[in-house]
Amino acid sequence: MADLLVVGGGIVGLLSALEFTDRGCRVTVIDAPARFPPASWAGGGILSPLYAWRYPDAMNLLTVDAPERYRNLITRLRGRAGLVDEDLNESGLWVAVETEQERADAMAWARRWRLPCSAERLSQRMPEATDRDGVWFPTLSNLRNPRILKALRACLSARGVTFEATPAVSVSPRAGGGASVALADGRECRAPRVLISAGMWSPRLLRPLGLDLPLFPSKGEMLLYRLAPGRVPTVLLTEQGYLIPRADGAVLAGSTLKDGDDSHYPTVPGRWALEKMAASLLPALAGERPVSHWAGVRPGCGRDWPYLGEVPGVPGVYAALGHYRNGLVSAPASAALLAALMSGERPHLDPALYALPSSSS
Ligand SMILES: Cc1cc2nc3c(=O)[nH]c(=O)nc-3n(C[C@H](O)[C@H](O)[C@H](O)COP(=O)(O)OP(=O)(O)OC[C@H]3O[C@@H](n4cnc5c(N)ncnc54)[C@H](O)[C@@H]3O)c2cc1C
């Protein structure tokens, strides 16, 4: 029997598994990505919430040190599955602001969280782009998330973590703590501690345990262009959409947002909308054909920060829910918090901010 079961091997589950192996635990990850495509592969990898100053402290506490956390992780995983330092692209983040108030809020937020920030028109940073007013955050970066996921899986396998690719169908609490997880082929996995980090599918597994939270699927589509490296020098974020440059010249254009939609296929209207948005930010993109187009489904949430903690009334079973649009940026701190809670350690953040409410509260 494993010490610990992790159900769901997206970014949250894999980083949590890494934390548990650091504590010497025997870990099994139940993950069926062929059946349930992870949002973590589809996401853009901007290491900041979009318009971060609009979020409450509970989210900023999970995200503000993400670039540093990922830099340390890449140093640790470098070379696995081809992971290189440039997979964390220190491109900076330029954000369009349309009002004086928005600019003031952005600058105040940067001062509060001790991040460098300056007011800058886009033409100062990227003369080719359609000029706008904005703010520039030089230390905010973007992550090539599929690479980091591959490297994490390789690292965990090398550390003896077992990966089980059969879908989990139900979670039954065990007397004395933890749970049995029934698999689709009739087998069962058991452990005294279980983490449910199954993205948009977590509610399905947790509802029978009495959990009823405002969680929903939220589809997003993305395009990928290939340009000369450096042509888009920074992440460029506007209310209409964003461009994300990778170090090798790939530029992602995203994203659509359709709450309530759990389909995973890209659509023609989605492509048109993204092509139009991309060309409105960088007119030269009107003459480029995207080389790839995909969709993913975010674990949507009715509040602006995730639920992280023990499932009320089910000792030993924990959940990571509702990372929504910010799961990549907030995953390292979420995993650190969960691992501390599940190991009986004092977490680095106040767990009450993230606790799952009992159904009576
Ligand atoms: C288009 C798009 C753009 C995005 N851009 C960004 C961004 O720039 N920055 C950012 O921070 N976030 C971004 N996000 C959000 C981010 O991708 C998600 O919040 C995050 O990936 C959620 O991670 P997760 O581990 O909770 O879930 P997932 O990545 O969805 O992982 C869940 C895993 O659980 C497995 N699973 C589910 N059910 C079962 C089951 N019954 N049995 C076995 N396995 C199961 C699945 O196969 C999957 O591997 C974006 C998302 C999308 C779709």
Automatic annotation (TrEMBL):
<keyword id="KW-0560">Oxidoreductase</keyword>
<dbReference type="Pfam" id="PF01266">
    <property type="entry name" value="DAO"/>
</dbReference>
<dbReference type="GO" id="GO:0016491">
    <property type="term" value="F:oxidoreductase activity"/>
</dbReference>
<dbReference type="GO" id="GO:0005737">
    <property type="term" value="C:cytoplasm"/>
</dbReference>
<dbReference type="InterPro" id="IPR006076">
    <property type="entry name" value="FAD-dep_OxRdtase"/>
</dbReference>
<feature type="domain" description="FAD dependent oxidoreductase">
    <location>
        <begin position="3"/>
        <end position="341"/>
    </location>
</feature>
<dbReference type="InterPro" id="IPR036188">
    <property type="entry name" value="FAD/NAD-bd_sf"/>
</dbReference>
<protein>
    <submittedName>
        <fullName>Oxidoreductase</fullName>
    </submittedName>
</protein>
